[in-house]
User: What shape does this take?
Amino acid sequence: MLRFKHLFVTIVGLALCVLSAQAQPRDSKRFAAIENEKIAYITKELNLTTAEAQRFFPIYNQYSKAVWNVRSQRQDDSTPSPKGTNSFNRSSGQRDVLSYDAKELNIKKEYRAKFAEVIGQSRASQFFEVEQNFRELLYKELQNRKRNE
Assistant: This one.
C-alpha cells in the first residue's frame, strides 16, 4: 500500500511539474485533468515502476509535443478551399496528407526506440496500443456525456 501511494504521488507530482513547465495555450483545466488521467492509465497499463515512470514520462512529453506539432501543422494546412476546387490540387501550398502521416510514423519509430531504452522493447511497442485504447475510452466517455445531456 505504501509503495502504491509513493508511486501515485510521484506520478502526479511529475505530471504537475511537466504540465506547469510547459504552459501552452492548449493547457486548460480540462486538458490538464485529461492528461493526468492519461498518465495514470499509461502507468497502470504498462505496469511502470516508480523509477521507470520518472525516466519514461519526460521522454513521453517530448513525444507528445512532437506529435502535437505535426497534427497542428496538418490542421493549419487544412483550411477550406473555395467551392468547386479540389484542396489537393491547389496551385499554392498543396496539402499532402500522406506526408503528415509519414512524419507522425517517423516520430513514433524514433520514440519507440527511446521508450525501449527505459521500459524494454515489448512495453515500448505496447505503449502505442495503450495510447490508442485511452483515446477510445475518452471518445466513448464524451459520447456518453453527449447522450446524457
Residues 64 and 102 are 16 Å apart (CA to CA). The helical segments are 2-21, 29-46, 50-76, 97-119, 121-148.
